[in-house]
Design brief:
By secondary structure, this protein is α+β, with helices and mostly antiparallel strands. The radius of gyration is 19 Å and the shape is elongated. The longest helix is centred in the middle third of the chain and has 15 residues. The protein contains two helices and eight strands; from the N terminus they run αββαββββββ.
Length: 152
């Protein structure tokens, strides 16, 4: 069985979701990074347990001799959100939003509505004044959605 198949099978009946699997390195020296998340809180103990389980299961993989490292992590704020269910954890946080059409913008996620509508509070300059405007966009109409880190 291939390592990716083993990883996918592991998560099929769990509360965790694979956000992304990244393979890096050369053919004979691969690193596999597995990014996981869940609707509730995800803590370090969860990641340690998953990492231990997957490393143990990976010993059964046919392609294991080419893998030098298997890392399990949460997506972190440097990775764009990919799933609608991930947004509940980020209400009232600032985002960089890249819509499929129109200009990218920054705004605070104020509301998650029906039909996957997201409401953002944005600060824009109009006639040398800062004005707060609300922008609504459907999740499916967003190409990229990334939490913006602020150091205030």
């Amino acid at each position: 069985m291939e390592i990716i198949e083993i990883i996918e099978n592991y998560f099929q009946n769990s509360s965790y979701n694979i956000v992304e699997i990244v393979t890096k390195g050369e053919r004979s020296n691969k690193i596999i990074e597995v990014y996981v998340d869940k609707e509730g809180s995800l803590d370090i103990e969860d990641l340690v347990e998953i990492n231990r389980d997957l490393n143990k299961l990976s010993e059964e993989a046919e392609d294991i001799r080419h893998i030098s490292k298997l890392v399990v992590s949460s997506p972190g704020t440097d990775r764009p959100l990919k799933f609608f269910w991930q947004l509940n954890k980020h209400l009232n946080r600032n985002f960089e939003v890249k819509p499929l059409s129109g200009e990218p913008f920054e705004g605070k996620l104020m509301e998650i509505g029906g039909n996957q509508m997201l409401s953002f509070e944005c600060i824009v300059k109009e006639k040398n004044k800062k004005v707060i405007v609300n922008k609504e966009v459907r999740f499916s109409d967003i190409e990229g959605l990334k939490v913006k880190i602020s150091f205030k």
